[in-house]
Amino acid sequence: MTASPRPSAIAGLAGRWIGLAPFVLFTGLFLILPTLHIVIGAFRGTDGEFTIQNILDLNTPTIRSAYWVSIKVSFLSALLGCLIGFAMAAAMVLGGVTRRIKGPLLTFSGVASNFAGVPLAFAFIATIGPAGLITAYLRTEFGINLRAYGWNLLSTWGLIVTYLFFQIPLMILIITPALEGLKREWREAAAILGATGAQYWRMVALPILFPAILGTMALLFANAFGAVATAIALTGPSLNIAPILLYAQIRGDVLGNPNLGYALAFGMIVITGLANAIYIVLRFRAERWLK
């Protein structure tokens, strides 16, 4: 006969599941159910029947352009965020920075990585916007007109620069543990074998860190692609990107077909889902190397 579970074990298991209940409930109500509603709506016609016409209708110049601009903004902000964030994290971890600097930098990164939406847009408009503090100071004190040099905050590159405010700190937070996982013995072994610092990074460190860097870039891409509040508050309807087009559809300003709006949102889910899947796969690979 098999022994029945002890009451204490059953109580412990129940306690763990009860602790997870709020997370499961929150995820189901605000993530899984809305996603299912969007997916079903994307393949439903105005008469309620199954159709793929909504997906086919995404192949219009306006929607294609919105997706392309969104992908370009997300990719460039992710790439620049990775490069700048990696350099800062490497200087912090490997450059002998004291805890007095490292602690505040990580704390600021944790706050800045979640600072977005209307407050972030207002901060950039008030600082480097057409009538921003720095813009006006450069024009009055040095005669430098940023507008004359082609700078426009309310543009694609303006949005990319704004996104870097939370992309760089997020890169620092994610890549710092990977940099700290580089064992000193690897560098010492490379030095004993006659490798220079550049050779160590090219042949040892970067190949090990590459999955983590590439995975983080995929996460930053998804992070920027789904950002809607910052883009709307910064540029309004002047920039044609997928989140703004979707927001206009929700308000009923364009498209005029709710199911086409679901298809537009479904396309965004697919793109961000693929980016997050790449991040998860590469993160597991990076963790295996750094163990």
Automatic annotation (TrEMBL):
It is found in: Cell membrane. GO terms for cellular component: plasma membrane. The chain crosses the membrane at residues 20-43, 73-95, 115-138, 150-179, 199-221, 228-248, 260-282. InterPro entries: MetI-like, MetI-like_sf. It comes from the Bacteria. GO terms for biological process: transmembrane transport. Pfam families: BPD_transp_1. It is a multi-pass membrane protein. Keywords: Cell membrane, Membrane, Transmembrane, Transmembrane helix, Transport. CDD domains: TM_PBP2. Its main location: membrane. Residues 67-279 form the ABC transmembrane type-1 domain. PANTHER family: INNER MEMBRANE ABC TRANSPORTER PERMEASE PROTEIN YDCU-RELATED (PTHR42929:SF1), INNER MEMBRANE ABC TRANSPORTER PERMEASE PROTEIN YDCU-RELATED-RELATED (PTHR42929). Belongs to the binding-protein-dependent transport system permease family. CysTW subfamily. This is Putative spermidine/putrescine transport system permease protein. It comes from Loktanella fryxellensis.
